[in-house]
């Protein structure tokens, strides 16, 4: 399911709807002549919207690719496949939700319609739906069952809806945009709260051989009207694709990045709901190692909070294939991916495709349970939770960093250029994992840091890192000491540290350093 985000010419982007002089305050203009320090200070003022905060704090979701391809054993569908093929006789949305909760996920993102156009709900705008399948005698509705199961369990529900539709005779015409919005409206009004709408940029040919000029402006406006708290990803203004499907984000992952000149700032400011309209274009190359450093800020016209989502499949394919039952990623591989995504200031969207029964396969469940068990054992006890904390001059309680509440924080003083925090653990402890969180609700500011251990009266480097953001997890060789020191070597403005944790890896966890 390759993301065709590079096919920019096919997207049909709307023109900017607001002038450069009307930039919202949270998308600050950058003076091309400003110093790197001034640009960095400006970037430190950019903050997430509340919908972005809620999405980031969910941190781990399951992606569920399920549909016609499940029954044809394909990754990409064809326009001549009959709805009669779709018949998951043991389908159980409660099992999907139960598996997600056991894995530690807080959201399901369901593929409601893939590129083949087959709808997992009985859409009133096409016959190519579950309503024309033998499943439950045409009375079934996958989305309704999943929505109900999510609501009962407290999980959030997200929807993937492909704008590309190889079966619709309207595709490639202006009438298709109306058709697509009609289907989008069904999903956004009939199934309760939708927390995320996931668009990829695929724009191939339809049955008439034509490509579609997508009305992104209209899609976004409808979403903001009907589900204003939902984030729009990945071809959307709230959440960006990390750039690969490997499962790993960047070592240095900035949530604040420069905007391309064509991006209308109405949609760059998600918090201003009454003005949420406009087209959208993500960065042209999201596979770069650097999207938001001081080098990238230089000459930027404006900045936006645009956090990273990492999508990866637990299997080689995105849809279920029986031949891949023995190729499920191991629990250790999933743990490593967790470190490379959530542990690098990203949201993990892990694809777990249900099989032809309509159930998540036992092999996938085993791997997910193993991942959760490893992570829970590792992070069950913060060795710094009772530490005595001494800090540079600052604001707030120093022990707020170890109180297990990411909404409390300690902020370095405005005049402090090298903030330092020393932790006395009370006795010698052995650890090999570091957890850090910024008060990201107020911006992302830390650019470089180092953790040091006191050995025979001298401070010795344990591990060095760059960005923190929502969460940073670092692995290193085991260290035994009573005294540790955390120093922020470089930051954008006044850094605010919400969480500091030292942990020892469980026996089943891969080393990863």
Task: Note down, in words, how this protein is organized.
The protein has about 525 residues and is of the alpha/beta class. It has 2 domains: about 375 residues, TIM Barrel (Alpha-Beta Barrel), CATH 3.20.20; about 120 residues, Jelly Rolls, CATH 2.60.120. An 8-stranded parallel beta sheet has the order 5-4-3-2-1-10-9-6. Strands 11, 12, 13, 14, 15, 16, 17 and 18 form an 8-stranded antiparallel beta sheet that branches. Strands 7-8 form a two-stranded antiparallel sheet. Helix 4 packs across helix 5 and helix 6 packs parallel to helix 7. The radius of gyration is 24 Å and the shape is globular. The relative contact order is 0.14. The N terminus is likely disordered.
What is the percentage of strand-forming residues?
A: 15-25%
> Structural class per helix/strand content?
alpha/beta
CATH class group of the largest domain: Alpha Beta
Mean pLDDT: 89
The backbone outline, from C-alpha atoms, is globular
Helix count, DSSP H or I runs of 4 or more residues:
11
> Which superfamily, in CATH terms, is the homologous superfamily of the largest domain?
Glycosidases
User: Total strand count, please?
Assistant: 18
Low-pLDDT parts are 1-25, 261-280
CATH topology of the largest domain: TIM Barrel
Examine the secondary-structure arrangement and name the CATH architecture of the largest domain: Alpha-Beta Barrel
| Count of domain modules | 2
Order of helices and strands: HHEHHEHEHEHEEEHHEEHEHEEEEEEEE
| Separation of the first and last Cα atoms | 30 Å
Query: How does the major sheet shape up?
Result: 8 strands, parallel
Strand order of the largest sheet: 5-4-3-2-1-10-9-6
User: Helix content range of the residues, please?
Assistant: 10-25%
Rg = 24 Å
């Amino acid at each position: 399911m390759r993301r065709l985000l590079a096919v920019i010419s096919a997207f049909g982007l709307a023109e900017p709807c607001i002038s450069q002089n009307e930039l919202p305050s949270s998308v600050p203009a950058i003076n091309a002549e400003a110093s790197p320090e001034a640009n960095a200070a400006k970037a430190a003022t950019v903050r997430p919207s509340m919908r972005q905060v809620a999405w980031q704090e969910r941190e781990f979701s399951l992606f569920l690719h399920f549909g016609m391809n499940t029954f044809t054993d394909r990754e990409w569908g064809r326009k001549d496949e009959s709805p009669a093929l779709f018949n998951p006789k043991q389908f159980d949305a409660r099992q999907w939700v139960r598996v997600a909760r056991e894995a530690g996920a807080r959201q399901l993102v369901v593929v409601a319609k893939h590129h083949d156009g087959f709808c997992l709900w009985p859409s009133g705008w096409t016959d190519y739906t579950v309503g024309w399948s033998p499943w439950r005698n045409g009375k079934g509705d996958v989305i309704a069952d999943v929505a109900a199961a999510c609501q009962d369990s407290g999980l959030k529900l997200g929807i993937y809806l492909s704008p590309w539709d190889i079966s619709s005779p309207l595709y490639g015409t202006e009438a298709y945009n109306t058709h697509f919005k009609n289907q989008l409206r069904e999903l956004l009004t009939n199934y309760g709260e939708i927390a995320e709408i996931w668009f990829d940029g695929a724009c191939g040919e339809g049955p008439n051989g034509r490509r579609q000029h997508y009305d992104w402006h209209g899609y976004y406006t409808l979403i903001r009207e009907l589900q204003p708290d939902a984030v729009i990803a990945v071809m959307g203004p709230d959440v960006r694709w990390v750039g690969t499907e490997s499962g790993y984000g960047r070592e240095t992952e900035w949530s604040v990045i420069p905007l391309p000149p064509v991006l209308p700032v109405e949609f760059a400011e998600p918090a201003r709901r009454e003005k949420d309209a406009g087209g959208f274009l993500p960065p042209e190359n999201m596979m770069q190692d650097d999207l938001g450093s001081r080098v990238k800020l230089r000459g930027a016209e404006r900045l936006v909070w645009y956090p990273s989502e990492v999508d990866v499949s637990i299997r080689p394919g995105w849809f279920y294939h029986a031949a891949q039952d023995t190729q499920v990623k191991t629990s250790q591989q999933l743990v490593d991916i967790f470190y490379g995504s959530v542990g690098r200031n990203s949201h993990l969207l892990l694809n777990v495709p249900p099989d032809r029964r309509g159930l998540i396969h036992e092999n996938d469940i085993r791997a997910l349970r193993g991942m959760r068990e490893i992570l829970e054992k590792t992070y069950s006890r913060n060795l710094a939770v009772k530490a005595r904390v001494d800090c540079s001059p600052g604001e707030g309680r120093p022990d707020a960093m170890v109180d297990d509440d990411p909404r409390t924080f300690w902020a370095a003083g405005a005049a402090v250029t090298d903030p330092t925090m020393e932790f006395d653990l009370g006795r010698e402890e052995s650890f090999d994992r570091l957890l850090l969180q910024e008060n990201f609700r107020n911006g992302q500011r830390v650019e470089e840091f180092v953790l040091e251990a006191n050995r025979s009266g001298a401070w010795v480097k344990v591990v060095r890192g760059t960005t923190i953001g929502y969460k940073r997890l670092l692995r290193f060789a085991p260290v035994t000491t009573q005294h540790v020191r955390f120093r922020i070597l470089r930051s954008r403005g006044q850094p605010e540290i919400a969480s500091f944790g030292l942990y020892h890896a469980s026996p089943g966890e891969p080393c990863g350093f």
